[in-house]
Design brief:
By secondary structure, the protein is an all-alpha fold. Helix content is 69%, strand content 0%. The chain contains 19 helices and no strands.
Length: 402
C-alpha cells in the first residue's frame, strides 16, 4: 500500500510540475485576461457588490462567491511581483494533484490495488486535465475535486460533517456540481438520521458563511449572473452540435440553450438521485456518472467543460477514463492550438464528437457496473482495520466499482 501510494504521489507531483511549467511559459486563452480583469474589479467593488456592477469590457461575472475571495487572494499575490497569468492556473493544477490521490483512494476500496494505481496515475497524466489546468486555468477542476471528496468522505470515510463542508465548497467555487448535491443528500439519508443531520449541518454552515452575505445583499443579481447562467451560445459540442449538423430549426437550438437546458439538468439530477438511492455505497461512482451525464447533455460549449468527466470516468473504470481523457484531450489540445478556444475547426469538432460518443459509452458501462453490485456491499475495508460487515462479493471483470 505504501509503495502504491508513493507511485501515485510521484505521478501527481510530476503532473503538477508539468502543469505549472505550462502555466509559467504560455499566455493561455482569453479567460486568463478576463480573470485578471475580474480580480481588479473585485478590489474595487468587493466579492459581494461585484454582482451588481456592469463591468465594461468584461463578460458577466458568473462565478459563485468563493471564487471572488480566491481571485482577491491571487491578485494580492500578483501585487507582490508574482505573475497573475501563472497564479490563476495554479488552483486547477493543485486540484488535479489532490484529485489523483483522491481517485486512488476511491478505487482501491472497490478494485485491485493495481487498478487503483493506474486510475490515480491516469488522472495525474490525463491529457485533457493537463491542457485545461495548465493552459486554461478556470475553476472547474477545483469544483470537481471537492465534489468527489464529498462523496469519498461520506461513503468511504464515514465523515458526513466534513462531506457536507466539501459539498458546499464545490458549488461555492463553480456552480456546476449542484447537480450532485441532491444525490449526496440522498446517500446521507440512506445512512440514517444522524448521518443526514451531520451532513446537512456541514453543508448548511459553510453555505451560510460563503453565500449568506451575497444572498442578503444582492440576491437578484446573484440569481441572474450565477444561478440562471446557461453558458455560451456556441454550437461546438454534444446535443447542440448534432442538432446543428442535422439542420434543426434555430428556434429549437435556441430553446435547448435557453430555458430548455434546465430539463437536461433535471435529468442529470434525477439520474444521480436514483443511483444514490439504489447504491449509496457507490456514491463516488454516482457522482462521476452525474457529472459526466451533465457534460453529455450540456447545451453549452467550452473546452474547460471537458474536465467535468475526466476524473469521474477513472472512478468508473480505468479503460473508460483512459479512452475519454485521450480523445477529449486531443480535442482540447487542438482547440487551444487554434485561433480561439471558442472557435473550433471542423476537425476539432469531429474529434469532439468522437469524445462525446466515448463518454456516452463510458457512462453506460459505469451505470451497469454500479447496478451490478449488491445494494448492501460496502467499500473494501482499508488494510489494518477489521471488516464491519460481510466480505465482498465478486465483481465484473475490469470494474473499478464494487
Amino acid at each position: 500500500m505504501r509503495r502504491a501510494r508513493a507511485v501515485v504521489l510521484v505521478a501527481a507531483a510530476v503532473g503538477l510540475l508539468t502543469r505549472m511549467i505550462i502555466a509559467a511559459n504560455m499566455p493561455g486563452p482569453a479567460d486568463v485576461r478576463i480573470f485578471a480583469g475580474f480580480a481588479k474589479a473585485l478590489t474595487v467593488y468587493g466579492p459581494v457588490r461585484i454582482y451588481e456592477q456592469p463591468l465594461p469590457g468584461l463578460p458577466v461575472y458568473n462565478h459563485p462567491p468563493l471564487a471572488g475571495w480566491m481571485l482577491l487572494g491571487l491578485n494580492s499575490l500578483s501585487e507582490l511581483g508574482m505573475s497573475f497569468a501563472t497564479l490563476i492556473r495554479s488552483p486547477a493544477s493543485i486540484a488535479d494533484f489532490f484529485c489523483a490521490l483522491l481517485v486512488f483512494e476511491i478505487v482501491r476500496r472497490r478494485a485491485t490495488l493495481g487498478k487503483a494505481v493506474l486510475c490515480g496515475v491516469g488522472v495525474a497524466a490525463s491529457p485533457v486535465l493537463i491542457a485545461t489546468s495548465g493552459y486554461h486555468g478556470n475553476t472547474d477542476e477545483v469544483a470537481i475535486m471537492f465534489a468527489l471528496a464529498a462523496a469519498h468522505l461520506l461513503a468511504d470515510r464515514k465523515s458526513p460533517l466534513a462531506a457536507g463542508v466539501a459539498a458546499a465548497l464545490s458549488i461555492s467555487v463553480k456552480f456546476i456540481p449542484v447537480v450532485v448535491v441532491p444525490a449526496l443528500f440522498v446517500a446521507a439519508l440512506r445512512g440514517g438520521r444522524p448521518v443526514l443531520v451531520r451532513f446537512a449541518a456541514g453543508f448548511g454552515a459553510l453555505f451560510a458563511l460563503v453565500w449568506g452575505p451575497v444572498l442578503v445583499t444582492v440576491p437578484q443579481h446573484l440569481k441572474q449572473n450565477v444561478l440562471e447562467y446557461a453558458g455560451g451560445s456556441y454550437r461546438l459540442w454534444g446535443l447542440v452540435r448534432f442538432a446543428d449538423v442535422l439542420g434543426l430549426p434555430d428556434s429549437v437550438i435556441t430553446f435547448m440553450q435557453g430555458g430548455g437546458h434546465f430539463l437536461f439538468v433535471l435529468v442529470c439530477v434525477a439520474a444521480g438521485v436514483w443511483l444514490a438511492w439504489l447504491r449509496p455505497a457507490q456514491l463516488p461512482g454516482v457522482v462521476g456518472v452525474t457529472l459526466g451525464l451533465l457534460l453529455l447533455l450540456s447545451t453549452a460549449s467550452g473546452l474547460q467543460y471537458l474536465t467535468w468527466g475526466a476524473a469521474g470516468t477513472f472512478v468508473l473504470g480505468f479503460w473508460e477514463g483512459l479512452a475519454y481523457s485521450c480523445v477529449v484531450g486531443l480535442t482540447a489540445i487542438l482547440g487551444y492550438s487554434g485561433s480561439s478556444a471558442v472557435r473550433w475547426s471542423e476537425p476539432v469538432m469531429y474529434v469532439g464528437a468522437a469524445g462525446w460518443i466515448v463518454l456516452a459509452a463510458g457512462l453506460a458501462t459505469g451505470v451497469r457496473r454500479i447496478l451490478a453490485t449488491r445494494p448492501d456491499t460496502p467499500a473494501k475495508t482499508p488494510a489494518g482495520r477489521a471488516p464491519l460487515s460481510a466480505p465482498r462479493t465478486s465483481q465484473p471483470s475490469g470494474s473499478t466499482v464494487n
